[in-house]
Amino acid sequence: MSRKKYDRISKNESDGRIFYGYDDKEDGTTTWYDEYGNLDSRTDTPSYSDEE
Question: CA Rg, the chain, in Å?
């Protein structure tokens, strides 16, 4: 996992797990890691309206 500060944070409502997202501005994706630094997934970067 990159050592830079994450770009976004997401809490899974079903189990309370927290994930940290790192945006790739070049390809428009976000890579998500769990609190232990394990890769979870890669998704299209959510828009701010998606997070509200």
Answer: 11
